[in-house]
# Entry
Amino acid sequence: MPARPVGSVEVITGSMFSGKTEELIRRVKRAILARQRVQAFKPRIDDRYDPHRIVSHGAISVDAIAVATSASLEERILDTTDVVAIDEAQFFDRGIVEVCDRLANRGLRVIAAGLDQDYLGRPFPPMPELMAIAEQVTKVNAVCSVCGGTASRSQRIIPKATTVLVGGSESYEARCRGCYEPREVPPAPT
# Structure
């Protein structure tokens, strides 16, 4: 009887500007070099740099399919796919956990990158659940924009009080525990 392919879930997590997307792209490029068939996905709401590519803050990129939901992502998986890469996993609905689990159970290697904490320093769903089912979790850190230490938090620096705010250096800074200011951001003046 032929051996059933063994799939896995890998999670890359950390704060803003910690290199999550660059690490995801590095793993995707290695899989392509190994002649594996890769499909990369991103949430449709993340159109900061390019609507059809996963792009790091450092302008490293790879082609991707933008989808609105975890169900939409799962529907687009081809039978020939070996590796599924998912960027900004925290922006997907909670169904992404079950989708990743099902894909791994089918023998696919699933690599998901996303923020582990929101701007208030709280766990950012569905990342804790993804980390719980993963075979491998890689936590990456940034450099604190205040003191230069090891940063593990994303400090929102503009007045916008919604959990989901897609942005870059105009909206966030990487901060260490000591320099992070855990506070609600006041709403923007009207």
